[in-house]
Specification:
The protein has 259 residues and is an alpha/beta fold. The strands form two sheets. Strands 3-2-1-4-6-8-9 form a seven-stranded parallel sheet, sandwiched between helices. Strand 1, helix 1 and strand 2 form a beta-alpha-beta unit.
Length: 259
């Protein structure tokens, strides 16, 4: 463990598994204090207590990011448990893929409520504290869907495009307050969601192989590789990065066609 994030008190959403949990572990190894949020109360408690048992400074609360009042209360609770927050990682999200004209109102609302409104609820709850203490960092976990389009994945790319727009808007708005707002855009990552996607095909092995073929390096990212990028973005090692997005996709979004 080093101490690159020794002064950071970080709220992380969607932190009970996948990329969120990998980020939590990575920032803790860099001596940060964290407050973890997830809707899955049982899994969140299990993972959080395991990290606390390893000696890390961890607080947690089960909460739904679409509930603005609940998130505001969690931010106050986090301040009481680990101190005034000075960083937020908006990781929680949900895949909502459909054909445009087949997308129901329920699917549309679920996509935007979680992927955009939920992230804004967290920003809105944390920003006053960041302003009061003279600065801080917000990192929104976006996606390559924030600037590329895959057919049949509507309306998810719309929400991620909007999240990137919110990142840029807030970054400019609060730069005079010494608050950096950036985004991180992973491509395919070996999480349970991706495994479930492969398993939805008649031949999961073939589906996985097709995904790998899309990537110049012939593989997809691990959650830990995304977490390493998040550590950098949340640290003071990139003090002049603001209102921008770092892409971590192994070159997927750069090439026009797989080789």
């Amino acid at each position: 463990m080093s101490s690159r994030l020794a002064d950071k008190r970080i709220l992380i959403t969607g932190a009970a598994q996948g990329i969120g949990l990998a980020i939590a572990k990575a920032v803790l190894r860099e001596d940060a204090s964290v407050y973890l949020i997830d809707r899955d109360e049982m899994l969140l408690r299990e993972e959080s207590e395991r990290l606390k048992g390893e000696g890390y400074r961890v607080g947690y609360a089960a909460a739904d990011i679409t509930d603005a009042k609940a998130i505001a209360a969690v931010v106050e609770q986090a301040r009481d448990e680990i101190g005034q927050l000075n960083a937020l990682i908006n990781n929680a999200g949900v895949n909502v893929f459909s054909e445009p004209l087949e997308t129901t109102d329920e699917e549309w609302n679920r996509c935007f409520d979680i992927n955009l409104k939920g992230a804004w609820n967290c920003c809105k709850a944390v920003l006053p504290g960041l302003i009061k203490q003279g600065g801080g960092v917000i990192l929104n976990i976006a996606s390559t869907h924030a600037f590329t389009i895959i057919p049949h994945t509507f309306p998810y790319p719309l929400a991620k495009h909007a999240l990137l727009g919110m990142t840029k808007s807030l970054g400019l708005e609060y730069a005079p307050r010494n608050i950096r707002v950036n985004a991180l855009a992973p491509g395919y990552v070996a999480t349970q969601k991706v495994i479930d996607y492969w398993n939805s095909f008649p031949d999961p092995v073939a589906a996985e192989a097709e995904t790998m073929k899309l990537h110049p390096g012939g593989r997809i990212a691990t959650p830990e590789e995304i977490a390493l990028a998040a550590v950098f973005m949340i640290s003071d090692e990139c003090p002049f990065m603001n209102a921008t997005c770092l892409t971590v996709d192994g070159g997927l979004s750069v090439q026009q066609h797989p080789a």
